[in-house]
Fold this sequence. Notes:
Elements: H1 10-31, H2 61-72, H3 88-91, H4 95-104, E1 144-146, E2 151-153, E3 186-192, E4 195-201, E5 207-214, E6 221-224, H5 225-231, E7 236-244, E8 247-260, E9 268-276, E10 314-316, H6 318-324, E11 325-330, E12 338-342, E13 347-359, E14 369-371, H7 374-385, H8 395-407, E15 409-410, E16 416-417, H9 433-444
Parallel strand pairs: 5-10, 6-9
Antiparallel strand pairs: 1-2, 3-13, 4-5, 4-8, 6-10, 7-8, 7-14, 8-9, 11-12, 12-13, 15-16
Amino acid sequence: MSKHSEIPTYKEIIDFVKNQRKALSSLSKNNQTSFVKQNNSGNSTYRSKSVPHSFVTNNSGGENKKLYKSLTGNCTICKQLHSVFQCSDFLKLTPRERYSLAKEKKLCLNCLSSIHRIADCKSTNVCSICRFRHHSLLHFDKSCSNNNNNVRENISLDIAFSSQSPIDEHINPPNNFCSTSSNKITQNYTTLLSTAVVNIMSVSGEYKTARFLIDTGSQAHFITTKCCQRLKLPYQKYRSTVNGIGGHQNILGYVNLVLSSRFDSSIQYPIYALVIDKVTDRLPTTKIPVKSLSYLRHIQLADEQFYEPSKIDGIIGASLFLHILGNSKVVGPPNLPMAVQTSLGYIIMGNVPTPTIMEVANSQTFCSIIKPSLEQILHKFWEIEEIPAPPVLNQEDAECENIFITTTTREETGRFTVALPFKEYPPVLGDSFALACKKISLSRK
C-alpha cells in the first residue's frame, strides 16, 4: 500500500483487504481443525483452538503476495500443492520433531513460511496454547517423572525455543518465556470432614444407626434412598434439584426424621430431610493411621470409626449444626486434627498425615443449594401476578375493624389510643339484683 504519509485510495484498500482475506481463510483452516496426538516421547496431548486474528497495514503489497504464495504454494516438506500446516506427513510428527524439521527446512517458526525467518514475520498470530510467538503445531511440553514413588507431576514448559535445542541467530526470543503449571498436585496428607453416627427411629419404633456428614455449607438436610429403604421410612415425592460444586442432583422426595444421640436418648432432633440417590463417596478417602492420634482415645467420639473409609447415609446441614455444637474442643499437636464437642459426641476435623502420597483429585468438597422446581416457580409466579382479593369478614369482625379505623389516634408521645370494642347487645347474665338486695339487708341486721 502507500507510504504512511499518504492516504490510500479506495481501490488500494479493497485490494489489500482481498489479499488479507485470502491469507486469513488459508490460516483459519488450521485454527478450526483440532489435532489430537499423543507422541511416544511422553509429550502431552495437543489441541489447537480457534484464535481471533488481527491484521494491520503493511508498507508494501509485495510482502503480502509473498506470504500468500508461501502459504498456498508447494509444501516444503512433501512438495505437494498445500500449505505446511496442512501436510499430513508434517502432522504425523511429534511437536519436537516438527520443531526440528522446521529448523532444518529454515521455516518461520511463527507462520511456517519459507520466505522469511521469525524475526521478519509480519503475522500477529501467537500460539493458541501458551500465547507465545511460535506456531501452535510447534508447541510441546516437558514431562518429568519420579520412578521412586511412581508419582507423576506433569509440568508444562510453555516455550517453543527449548534450551536443549540450538536457537537460531535470527530469532529474538522473549525475555521471560517460561511458564509452569501442574495438572496433578500430590500431597502426603488428607483432610478429615466431620462425621457422626446417630440413632434414627424406624417405622417399627426401633432405633437404628446411620452415618451422617456434618456440613455447615449445606442449606438443607439430606438422606440417601438406600438408608430410607433400610430403615423402611416412607418419603413423600418431591421434584427439585440441588446445586453444588460438583454439579446438580435430582431430589426424589422428603422425609421427616428424628435423630437421637447414641449417648443420651433424651437428646432428639426432628428434622426435615431431602431424599437423594447418593451423597458422596466413602469418607475419608483413605485409611488414617491412628498412632499419632492418641490424644483422642479418652473422649466420646461421634464416629468411633472416623479413620475407616465407609459410606455416608446423609448430611446434617447448617441449620442444625449450631444446636448440636458444644463449648469444648480438644486440640492436638500441630498439623493434626482437632475434636469439637457436640451433643452427638466429639467430631473430628482437620488435616491428618497419610502413609502414602495422595492426589488432589480424590478430595471431596461439599456445598449444596436447593433450587426450586419449575412447578414451584410457576406457582409462585401466578401468586405474585394474581390480584389479591379482600378477606371476607363476618359482622363482628367488620364492626371491630370499623371501631379501629374511626377511633384510633396517636398521641404526641407516640402512643396509640384505641377504643375497646364492645358488643352492642351483650348476653343476659341473669336476674341477680333482687337476690343481692336481700343479702345486703340480712347483713345489716
